[in-house]
Write a structure and sequence with these properties.
two-stranded parallel ribbon, mainly beta, 2 helices, about 50% strand, about 100 residues, four-stranded mixed sheet, 8 strands
């Protein structure tokens, strides 16, 4: 998984959707592109995610699923997911903070 603050959205391989048991047959279709130009078509779904399996670190994000993402540039966690959470590492003492954006 690549964490990319320059990516507007989150893009995962369709194999992730299959592993989650998502049926994307009737999902909205979008065109995707990146720095390298056009990237093809993706299907969009809303997902509830919980970091570290904790209910207090839960958010709903929009995810685009496309074929062969994992084999080309890799699954991408974009800004739309990252802005739901606050995180700050403190390397000098090997600790960090993780919470929902806005402290909620």
């Amino acid at each position: 998984m690549i964490v990319d603050s320059g990516a507007e959205g989150t893009l995962l391989d369709v194999e992730v959707a299959e592993a989650l048991g998502l049926d994307l047959t009737d999902a909205r279709r979008i065109s995707i592109s990146g720095v390298g130009g056009p990237g093809g078509e993706a299907r969009v779904a809303e997902l509830d995610v919980a970091l570290l399996g904790r209910s207090d670190l839960r958010a709903r994000i929009t995810v685009a699923f496309a074929p062969d993402v994992a084999d080309t540039f890799g699954n991408l966690l974009g800004l739309n997911a990252m802005q739901q959470f606050d995180f700050a590492p403190q390397h000098s003492i090997c600790r960090g903070y993780l919470g929902t954006a806005g402290g909620g």
